[in-house]
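User: What would this chain look like folded?
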Amino acid sequence: MGTDYNHEIGYETLQKDFRRYQKETPKGVSLQNKRNKTIVLKFKINGKEKSKGCNCTFTLDGMVEASKVAEKLKTCSSIVEFDKWYDETILEKNKIADDRLTFGEAIAKVEADFWSRPDRRKRKRDKNNPSDLTSWHDTYKRFYKHLPSAKNLNIPDIMTVIDKWNRGTKTYKGVVSAMKKLVSINHRQDIRDKLSELDVSQPDYKDLQSVTLEDFLTWRDKTLGITASLHPNAHLSVRKAWLWVFSIQVVYGLRIHEVFAIANAFEPYVTKDKVTIPALNDQENSENILV
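Assistant: Here's the prediction, encoded as structure tokens.
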């Protein structure tokens, strides 16, 4: 497995998103994952086969950019036209990096990009949505807040922040990923090259944690607003739905994908030999049998 994948989401989900983007590319264009690090496009234009790296990392951001390249191929009438657009827009050969850019200005660009880009479910992000705010904080803000906003973008201050976290941990991966995003979107390839030299492999994992039923019920009451005030934009119905999922996990010891695979969660299930298993919420299912 590569070490430069996106840290907003789990790797398996990233693979699933990549397969979706592959299906959405125009006819005759294919996206290929190169060693879990970069994305390569293969296509024909005027009958000639081309293979191009698109300056896109194997991340959710990279998939979005690769899709833009794929869409551009539909409007290009010649290889010359495409190559010119590719060099200027994707490789940014004529772009001059602004080394006077402050951290504050650089962070503002990342934030603007984050809120203008849909999430992995293609849902428009909303600054009033607690989930989106948490995503912004966990992925970027918690790391960027340590940077000196008035100083110009530079590697020493970035490394000072990165070194706040222990190497070999998930959080270390996250801070390096956030800093790569910061310098990439601001065209500081010189800094990104140095960040790419860092080893972000994760040999250290947290011990498995457990929760007592009492602690879970206490958290449940807080989440439902019974013992604590909720954010004005909190969606109680969504919280109740997810709490049902988590409750099933606690009671039955299931993985989350196993919960979603329950056949008699809300409807009775008929086996191959015509035995009916009542739905979980059916009073006749007194033993709470799951299928």
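Residues 236-252 form the longest helix (17 residues). If you want, I can go into more detail on any region.
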